[in-house]
Amino acid sequence: MPEEKACYTLTGAAILTLDQDRSFFPDGMLIVEGDRICYVGALDRERIRGGTISMTGKLILPGLVNTHAHSGSSLFKSLADDLFLMDWLEHYMWPAEKFQTAQFSQIASALTHLEFLKNGITTHADMWIYGESTAAAALQSGLRSVICPTVFSRPSTETDDPLARAAAFVEKYRGRENETRIYPGFAPHAVYTCTQETLRETAALAKRYGVLLHTHISETREENRACQERLHCSPTQAMQDAGCFETHVLAAHCVHMRPQDYDIFAENSAAVSYNPVSNMKLCSGVMDMTLARSKQVCVSIGTDGSQSNNSLDLLRDLKSGILLQKVHLENPSFLPAEEALRMAVIDGATALGLQHEIGSLEIGKKADLITFDLNSPEFTPAHMERPENLHSLIVYSACGSNVCDVFVDGEWLMKDRIPLRVDETQILKEARQAAAVQLRSNGL
């Protein structure tokens, strides 16, 4: 006999589905069977199945999707601030990374995933060395993790052959997504850290395995200038010449892109991860979102790593990023709240190629969802007769600390802000101890 799937019903909540029909249920009900949604709609007590969980006074919406992060970097938080990107990388981050170990990377990743959980991020795209360490933290936290081990042309702290190590990781986890919630991919770091040959080899493997290729593109003007001098083209064109766009590409930053670069993205259904807070903090510039949108390129949002952000609150970054665009364009009507919120859910899912599984609350999709307390000051007043008011409250009033509950694959991972799978106190203790050792090792 096949094992019976667990089934329960969430009742009494307001539900923003973020589906194509913009469905909203002020007194809603959502039924989960196994890891999927089998009903979402108005409260109908005759349809209740399994155990009943009251969500009265709460707002349910899809889990947030963070499309660019570096989980193993959290022990470097506040290690070096107020610098330009290359100064920060070459003189602080890369030297500090030389002292990282697999154990420290796992401790850092556990800290990152705890912060994701507490901020309602149910899915994230990750780029870091020590992919197995990030995977161990993901398996512990229960979050949905798109893990792309970083590939350089040079050796890394982890290995002399980053591409071979990444390929072994992909081989191990590919096809086990439903079992592990881990989606493997490749992350060639950037054109300034990878030769064209490395990019070609990585792209060929990503295409062969049918997995995501996650990278940095055009983060700074200096990156563009150096690529033009070395290869006589833009970073996007260099990636195209290496065959990178023959698989699904998710590129972080894309601050200094030309129209012809976005044409390449549009032609190949590539996606962008907008990282506004990291870009502002490192003074990299302001992404031209109007250009990206005019080319119908999918733009999602990411926090970047906590070493450059220094927090992992996607809602706070969403607000900052949208307001930055408005003031930069001197156009307050650009990206209204509902469109902005979609960037953090369904557009994030699309950027990862997971839009058929997550990103909205619909029958048949994975039961990844979060709740907010409508009785909190940030959500007061909430006008149930005006769904657009709820969009505005989420984008402009709320932050990660307003998230009450987190479900992934129907599993309750955080209940009323208490993690149910991981030991928050232990994670924080281990992170403090490991950070102190790394700081001493780095001579700081």
Account of the protein in words:
Helix 2 (102-118) packs parallel to helix 3 (131-141). The protein starts with 6 loop residues before the first strand and ends with a helix. Strands 1, 2, 3, 4, 5, 15, 16, 17 and 18 form a 9-stranded mixed sheet that branches. With 444 residues, the protein is of the alpha/beta class. It has 16 helices and 18 strands.
Draw up the topology in text.
Layout: E1 7-16, E2 24-33, E3 36-42, E4 51-54, E5 58-62, E6 64-69, H1 85-97, H2 102-118, E7 121-128, H3 131-141, E8 144-151, H4 162-173, H5 177-180, E9 182-184, E10 187-188, H6 196-209, E11 213-217, H7 221-231, H8 235-241, E12 249-253, H9 259-267, E13 271-274, H10 276-281, H11 289-294, E14 298-301, H12 314-329, H13 337-343, H14 346-351, E15 369-373, H15 387-397, E16 403-408, E17 411-415, E18 418-419, H16 424-441
Parallel strand pairs: 1-4, 1-5, 6-7, 7-8, 8-9, 8-10, 11-12, 12-13, 13-14
Antiparallel strand pairs: 1-2, 2-3, 5-15, 15-16, 16-17, 17-18
Helix pairs in contact: 2-3, 2-16, 4-6, 13-15
Question: Can you give me a brief rundown of this structure?
Answer:
The protein is an alpha/beta fold and 444 residues long. The chain is 38% helix and 22% strand. The model has no long low-confidence stretch (mean pLDDT 94).
Question: Which residue ranges are poorly predicted, with pLDDT under 50 across at least 5 consecutive positions?
Answer: none
Number of helices: 16
Strand content: 15-25%
Percent helix, as a range, is 25-40%
Mean pLDDT across every amino acid position:
94
Distance between the termini: 60 Å
Q: What would you report as the Rg, rounded to the nearest angstrom?
A: 21 Å
Main sheet: strands, sense, barrel: 9 strands, mixed
Oligomer: single chain
Number of strands: 18
Form type: globular
Structural class: alpha/beta
